[in-house]
Design brief:
The complex is a heterodimer of chains A (221) and B (252). Chain A is mainly α. In chain A, 86% of the residues lie in helices and 0% in strands. Chain B has one domain: P-loop containing nucleotide triphosphate hydrolases (Rossmann fold, 3-Layer(aba) Sandwich). Chain B has 11 helices and 10 strands. Chain B has helices at residues 44-51, 79-85, 101-105, 107-111, 118-131, 135-138, 151-163, 181-194, 207-213, 231-236, 241-247; strands at 6-15, 18-28, 33-37, 61-69, 72-73, 86-89, 169-173, 199-203, 216-221, 224-230. The longest helix of chain B has 14 residues, at 118-131. Chain B is globular. The chains are: A mainly alpha (221), B alpha/beta (252). Chain A binds chain B through residues 2, 4-5, 71-78, 212, and chain B through 207-208, 211, 235-238, 244, 247-250.
């Protein structure tokens, strides 16, 4: 193995470590929401966000150094370009987990069970987590079939998001004293839909890196 | 599509029984810079020397197949005419040591017995040195010997000498491998201007140079032309695994 290959491997491991951390952020935000656990939510905001940001800076710097020192080409060039973008996408998913955790910290009381059920918020959360986890596996194993399956799963998240307005409007009509919670649920749904979008972007980068195909702004096969 | 300046069809070259260039098919478009790269001994320099018939000057060297210059068989021309139309610059700058800068530039005319008036000579010298980006540096010492120049200036003088004959194609065999980075950079910049008037075929070991200066890149391995494509494609998405392994440094 050349020194450059060793550094590429290390960068890949670093990227996966960041992924695991972002998954943990999302999982804690989900659990904090279900258990109304403000301490757990604070952990996402205070500790893990800083660690994700530190990873983002380190990966950016490593990529910059590798461009400058090795002048990568072909698959190496595509890998580094993909890592730079995935790094950014993951940091944004970290921000989404942070945003959800902040809602939990500010909420005066736990979510009403009816609204969680009617909006399918928990199912959406699970789907978003699955999508995030599968993009990680696709990256780790360079599995472009799995990466392509993300596009379909993102559509399911989009569907729940599309229905959410009507569901929340109906809920508010029946529960005018719980408008604030309904609006927070709608905001979380919007954020989870963004997790799907960011994961789609990541899947596109994995396909670009492995197959040299650009799917951005194209209809997905 | 415009007719290629150089076209090889099933071209082979040998040293005795050693088959060093194997069945090469390539079309080189006009006013492009083509980089030829590959590991040592892959046949790239031999192929280059076949284009202007220098290969046949070596004992036991033979070739077959078609080598066309603007559709005309190079091996059907007088070799001197072929070399007038297809100039060459070598790895080490090689100005004639006893000649002035001025006489070096017009050496091709003198050696071929072509008579020129003083005004014609002056014009050719100034035009050629200007095209080689050397005129401003040497115009006040034009009658000094070429060997007083720096390595990079000497190489540009050799380029001026080659283009003084108004060739169609300029072959450059690792033209910067003996030069420092600053001189290398000035020669590379020059390529961008030269290809407006000439077709350049550059053999290089320096992959980044190939990436920087060429429009198309050819990768040779063990005498075969493995891949030939736009340089941007070759360096971002090569089709052949051997090309990818070579350019990413994973060649064993």
């Amino acid at each position: 193995m050349t020194q450059f290959e060793v550094e590429i491997e290390e960068l890949k491991k670093e990227m996966i470590n960041m992924w695991v951390l972002v998954e943990s952020q999302m999982e804690k935000a989900r659990q904090a929401m279900i258990d109304f656990d403000k301490d757990l939510a604070r952990e996402v905001v205070l500790k893990e966000k800083k660690r994700v940001n530190a990873y983002e800076l380190k990966i950016d710097r490593d990529c910059e150094n590798m461009f400058a020192l090795y002048q990568p080409v072909a698959v190496d060039l595509r890998f580094l370009l993909a890592v730079l973008k995935i790094n950014n996408n993951l940091e944004r998913i970290g921000d989404i987990a942070d945003g959800i955790a902040r809602y939990i910290i500010e909420l005066p009381e736990p979510f009403n069970k009816d609204i969680l059920e009617q909006t399918q918020l928990l199912r959406m959360f699970d789907d978003a987590m699955t999508v995030l986890s599968e993009t990680k596996i696709a990256f780790e194993t360079e599995d472009t079939t799995l990466a392509r399956s993300i596009f379909k799963k993102d559509e399911m998240l989009d569907e729940i998001n599309l229905k959410a307005n009507n569901v929340v409007a109906e809920y508010i009509k029946g529960n005018p004293d719980n408008i604030m919670q309904a609006l927070v649920v709608l905001s979380i749904i919007r954020k989870l839909e963004r997790v799907g979008d960011q994961s789609t972007n990541i899947a596109e980068e994995i396909i670009f890196y492995v197959e040299a195909k650009v799917l951005k702004h194209h209809k997905k096969a | 599509m415009e007719r290629p300046v150089i076209k090889s069809v099933n071209f082979n070259a040998f040293f005795g029984t050693n088959h060093v260039v194997k069945n090469v098919n390539i079309e080189i478009p006009k006013h492009n810079a083509i980089a030829v790269m590959g590991p040592s001994g892959c046949g790239k320099t031999t192929y280059l020397r076949c284009i202007n018939r220098l290969h046949e000057l070596t004992d036991g060297a033979t070739s077959n197949g078609e080598m066309l210059l603007n559709g005309e068989e190079v091996y059907g021309m007088h070799p001197i005419f072929a070399r007038l139309k297809i100039g060459m610059v070598f790895q080490r700058p090689n100005p004639f040591p006893n000649l002035s800068i001025y006489d070096n530039v017009i050496a091709g005319y003198k050696l071929n017995g072509l008579k020129l008036s003083k005004a014609e000579k002056d014009n050719i010298v100034e035009q050629s040195l200007t095209k080689a980006a050397l005129w401003n540096e040497v115009k006040d010492s034009i009658h000094k010997k070429g060997t007083f120049l720096s390595g990079g200036q000497q190489q540009r003088l050799c380029i001026a000498r080659a283009i003084a004959m108004e060739p169609e194609v300029l072959l450059l065999d690792e033209p910067t491998s003996a030069l420092d980075p600053i001189s290398t950079s000035s020669i590379e910049e020059l390529f961008h201007d030269l290809k407006k008037n000439y077709t350049l075929i550059v053999v290089t070991h320096n992959m980044q140079q190939a990436a920087r200066v060429s429009d198309k890149t050819a990768f040779f391995y063990m005498g075969e032309l493995v891949e030939y494509d736009d340089t941007k494609t070759m360096f971002t998405n090569p089709k052949d695994t051997r090309t990818q392994n070579y350019i990413t440094g994973r060649f064993s």
